[in-house]
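Notes from the pairing session

We agreed to fold both candidates in a single pass and log them together. This is the raw record for the first candidate, unedited. Please don't reformat it; downstream parsing expects exactly this layout.

Candidate A
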Amino acid sequence: MTDAIEKPSLPLPASVETRFKLYIIRDPRLPDACKIGKDTNWPKRYQQALSHSPAPLEVFHSFSFADSGEVKQAEKLVAGLLAPKKRPGDVNEWYDLRPEECLEQLAPHATRWHPNRTRTEAADVARRGKLPYDDWRDYGDKWRDYRWHYWLFRERKPDGRWKLICSSLYDTFYRYSFTYNPYPVRLMAAFEAVDGVDKLGQENRRANDRLIALWQDLMRQHGLLESFQVGWLPPEVNMSQLMKSLEKVGLRPVDLTRPKPTFVRPRDSSIRQIPVGTVPPLYRLDEDWITP
């Protein structure tokens, strides 16, 4: 039996950029760390997740590949090579390594990779006028009969920022990973409208429309409505004042450990379903999560 012959990878012209990317990004709050990941449809996922961090992210460097197989091999190589530098906690693909040092370590292995532009601001990569998908998805009429919620998250760091999301999603926020944030982000609370009803029906539409309008007004008040950092409240926002404000406009906290009710969205796309009647996974809850 003859050995299989590996088909050689043809080099791309240096000026060509493809949608198969290995990228290096950094958060300006943490200059001694970087995230290295792949995207097989660049910059789609990057555009979607720009709202994962309260700071404007920077694309420090990227490489193009001919196909998904090549970029997956490169990502696997990077994960093994930089494993000792992986940041602690459940932060995905972040390493305690300056981007410049990262490039130096990758250089001997990147001779057949095809470098692209460097140090690109997020706004240059994202399509103008396209709001971050992870905060604006599934606002359609299809989901208006279910109970919607506000979801409050916090970065796990001494001066961690808070993020408030209004959404029809449910399962997502118990499993949600802020993969473009170098710090772990935890679920602190969920809120529902007092004028909503605990059943599926049109009675919830008015309450949901009010939730959306209130959230958008809050984002607009802080200049965040059309920002890539939408949802991240300014550092000066006092949490006790926020809680009182939400209560004043008819919102109340819900028990995050309650079994999944029948009046919330039954399934979210791309997320493992939480069966109705079962307690959601609690591993992403903050240890100081807000009880009703």
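Candidate B (folded immediately after A)
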Amino acid sequence: MLWLTIGVLLVVLVLYFIAESARKTTLTMLKGANAVRELPFPVGDGFVAAYRQADAWAVEHGYHRREIVHFSLVSEEDLVRTHGHADPDGSPWWVKSAFWWHPEKRCVYSITEAEGKVFHDFDTAFGREPGRPEYELTTSNHPDGAVVPRPPRFPAQVFPGKGAGELEALHEKASHWIREQTGLEPLEPGDTLAHVRRHLRVHAEHTLAHPLWHLRFYLWHLSKGRRLNRPVRELYQGRIPGESHKA
């Protein structure tokens, strides 16, 4: 009986720390929506190497360079308390992203360094009026991109281990399907900093809107495997969520 009690307490403590970590990260995302900063050039050995490789691929495939930004996954107060400084260079809690834009495809390609790893994303916004996206599609190779529920008009597909070329092809296929489903056309992305801030805010607010979201976080994490390596058409069972805009 004693060992059973100890086991239950350990499980409760683990779940508490997972939930607390999720709570802090999500709340920081809301703050981060106002703390995204532009970098004049890539910093950090790992990110610089990844940037050069991604830039060569992007330019070769018709993408144009855009901004490089960073923001923190935890508060700067916590960074100072745990690391003695809030310097983004060398800190695993600072996220760095670089962006490229394809004018014909109206697609944004980005790389993101988080916790020492680099991930690739393709994003396309769809709508009728410039600056007013109604759907935003993301194709990524970041496994944690499939953890928390997505806002209805922000469909995503996650393929861990895929490179930029494979992800781009999967993204174009999903983009074609969304255009068929909604009747909407790809939009120009507008300001990069505003784009990042909007994504941080919308996703954090959607997570916080779920009842007991911080307690459910570990269940979402454990079940993320069901959402990996599946195209949006399969994930949404042939119909994109939200009211159709097709005329």
